[in-house]
Amino acid sequence: MSGFPLPAGLDTPQLVVDRSRLEANIARLQGELGQRGVRLRPHAKTHKSVRIGRMQLDAGAAGLTVGTLGEAEVFVAGGIRDLFVAYPVWADGPKADRLRALHVNSDLRVGVDSVAGAERLGAAVRGTSRPLHVLVELDPGNHRTGVPAPEAAVAVAEACREAGLVVDGVFTHGGHSYRPGRPGGAALDEVVTLEAGAAALEAAGFEVSTISAGSTPTMTLAAEGRVNEIRAGTYVFGDRQQAVLGAMAWDTLAAVVAGTVVSAAADRIVIDAGAKALTKDRPEWLEGYGHLVAFPEAVIERLADYHGMLRVPPVSPRPRLGEVVAVVPNHICPVVDLVSTFTVVGPGGGVEYWPVDARGRSG
Ligand SMILES: Cc1ncc(COP(=O)(O)O)c(C=O)c1O
Hints:
By secondary structure, the chain is an alpha/beta fold.
């Protein structure tokens, strides 16, 4: 990574965003998908920020994706109404009441992957002035949520129709792309799975207007065939996983955790960015809990809540006591949820503080 300019006088740990790179990431993906005639509906769980959501919409995004009703509530309160909850919302008890209120106050669509889930969604919005629109989730091989086969998608869609919901189409999440060498295959899985699901729904008499794929590793690779919407989220900042997977170039990564070296011994250096700044997220194919931009051979090998313990090979350059270092986190999304504000550095070095509006809205 060519460097990450940190403003002087930072109080660490702090989540620092390079505004120029953030804007470039938004523009680049929007431009690439726009050229192919594919809509972008970015997943806002990565930034949880009304301001950044607006930047994406201003650049041409078709609306935002969210993962929870709590995130949807924050974006609706911030004036962003066109939202897709890409999650099989189980509309029971308080969730049913919240879903109904959101449906009345916004253009919300939700995901569904079961007959019982469809029945609950229908019951939650019964008696409102217009139907709730849904997308049926298919599993492209990620083995998280989503029905396993086109026939199951038809059964769910028929239950939706029965429950008074409008089925707009199908969606997948290619989360199995998160492994070196996998993005191409996972993207193909998404396209094939979505096309089969859409064809089955059409054969059963449904009008399929949305065929939505999405993850950052597959963000351009899955924009093929009949796929007409992409829901990447992480692309807005990027992280170490995306760089190692080859989904984003190192010098496009727009967010780092700044930490200060608070203790230094012969065999160990400690920074003040621990698990509560970096998270303990570490896929088995990455060594350590982040990448030190200026000290690429250093490994963050252990974390306590407020301590990050570094191992630096004896011959390699090492940060000195008191030095502020930039760390690219392994996975940016949960890191954002640990802070109340982004420290945003503009092209001229000026600093602004932007709120993480939907912080903690995990349900
Ligand atoms: C349903 C869904 N869509 C889209 C995304 C965005 O993927 P990424 O974080 O790889 O950009 C996610 C991420 O978890 C997701 O769960």
